């Protein structure tokens, strides 16, 4: 399920005065999970709350990324190209392959980046029909600006977590992703 209500955001001080961070009280996600588990007994309320919280966290993080991309004038696909080029010049075909996009899509995105003065395409010395794409100084400045603004936004979004909580959350998310990777493909529902 994924239509859980928005969080109320209530917070209460930690029960331990030695701790400098806050602990969240129950919120609408807990209430939704209890309701869903009563309506459908096969639902585990802890799993339901986790899934809905992860989805909401993703929405917040994606909204911040969209705002930052808009601020610096890059579309999502263009940013992905720029991040690849930050590691060095690459062939147009290699970028398309690494991003799993068609050569036509890659050409359109590179046309826009080149028109904006963010990249240049040069003849590929290893393939006379190919092109090597290189970031320009303006492109590097644009990417550096994106990273600076977005890093600040992400730190703000996670600002209520202590360094120890961030490490623990990273450990839990690592375990979650490992668990998701171990799951067999699910079968479609029977009709």
- What share of the residues does DSSP label as strand, in percent? 5-15%
CATH class of the domain at 76-143: Mainly Alpha
Average pLDDT works out at 86
The helix count comes to: 7
Q: Which blocks of ≥5 consecutive residues have pLDDT under 50? A: 6-21
CATH H-level superfamily of the domain at 76-143: Winged helix-like DNA-binding domain superfamily/Winged helix DNA-binding domain
Measured as a percent range, the helix fraction is 55-70%
The string of secondary-structure elements, in order, is EEHHHEHHEEHH
Radius of gyration: 22 Å
Give the overall shape, derived from the CA principal axes: elongated
Number of strands: 5
CATH topology of the domain at 76-143, anyone?
A: Arc Repressor Mutant, subunit A
Helix and strand layout, with pairings?
Elements (H helix, E strand, L loop, with lengths): L10 E3 L8 E3 L3 H12 L5 H28 L3 H10 L4 E2 H8 L3 H13 L3 E6 L2 E9 L1 H21 L5 H20 L9
Antiparallel strand pairs: 1-2, 3-5, 4-5
Helix pairs in contact: 1-2, 2-6, 4-5
Describe the structure.
The chain is α+β, with helices and mostly antiparallel strands and 191 residues long. It has helices at 28-39, 45-72, 76-85, 92-99, 103-115, 137-157, 163-182; strands spanning 11-13, 22-24, 90-91, 119-124, 127-135. It contains seven helices and five strands, in the order E-E-H-H-H-E-H-H-E-E-H-H. The strands form two sheets. A three-stranded antiparallel beta sheet has the order 3-5-4. A two-stranded antiparallel sheet has the order 1-2. Helix 4 packs across helix 5. The longest helix has 28 residues, at 45-72.
């Amino acid at each position: 399920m994924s239509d859980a209500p928005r969080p109320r955001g209530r917070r209460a001080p930690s029960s331990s005065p030695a701790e400098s961070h806050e602990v969240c009280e129950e919120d609408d996600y807990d209430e939704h999970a209890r309701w869903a588990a009563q309506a459908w007994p096969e639902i585990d309320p802890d799993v339901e709350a986790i899934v809905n919280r992860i989805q909401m966290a993703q929405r917040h993080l994606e909204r911040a990324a969209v705002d930052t991309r808009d601020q610096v004038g890059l579309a999502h696909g263009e940013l992905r190209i720029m991040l690849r080029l930050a590691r060095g010049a690459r062939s147009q075909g290699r970028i398309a392959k690494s991003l799993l996009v068609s050569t036509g899509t890659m050409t359109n995105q590179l046309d826009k980046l080149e028109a904006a003065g963010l990249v240049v395409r040069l003849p590929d010395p290893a393939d006379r029909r190919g092109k090597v794409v290189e970031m320009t100084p303006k492109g590097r400045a644009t990417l550096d600006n994106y990273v600076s603004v977005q890093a600040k936004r992400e730190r703000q979004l996670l600002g209520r977590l202590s360094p120890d909580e961030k490490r623990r959350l990273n450990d839990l998310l690592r375990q979650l992703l490992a668990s998701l990777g171990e799951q067999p493909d699910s079968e479609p529902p029977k009709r």
